Amino acid sequence: SNDYRIVIFGAGGVGKTSLALRFINGTFCEAYVPTIEDTYRKIVNSDKNVCTLQITDTAGSHPFPAMQRLSISRGHAFVLVYSITSKQSIEELKPIYDQILQLKTDLHNVPICLVGNKCDETERNVTAKEGKDLATFWKCGFLETSAKNNLNVKELFQKLLELEKRQNLTL
Ligand code: GDP
Predict the structure, then answer these.
(1) Which residue has the CA at smallest separation from atom 8 of ligand 1?
(2) ipTM of this model?
(3) What are phi and psi of 57, to 5 degrees?
């Protein structure tokens, strides 16, 4: 089967589930329901044939390190999400990035996007420049998104597929 696995990492409450649901279903929910791990699927076009985009929404603070390693090993592309309202949430991504670095030897072939979600919020604690600088340091993509206002959500997944050089994937 032609599966393309995108894994979403980030602290609890930054909006991982919301981004996935906004992209897959076009919906948004104000209520916070903590996730262990969920996978969503969407069919996309590829140069060979159709491809199933699998989006895995992981548990916030990784209570299961083995599960995190497995998600990274199996993942083709990664979304690292923080909330622009929380400095701590961007700090928490660093060990995850290091873990990806450790497990993916051909890192330059692995699409990664750093995402500052909740950009609709007025109480900002992480500037766009801080996010951009970290993404430059990591040599990965960067976007600020709002799952709530549907800002840059489709663009996020589009960007990941553009970063995928080995096959032509389009939404
Ligand atoms: P997760 O734990 O990272 O999966 O976070 P959730 O997707 O469950 O979202 C946590 C909370 O943040 C929920 O109450 C959402 O409604 C809210 N939320 C998610 N995305 C946004 C956003 O873009 N803007 C705002 N203002 N709230 C959001």
Answers:
(1) 32
(2) 0.99
(3) -100, 110
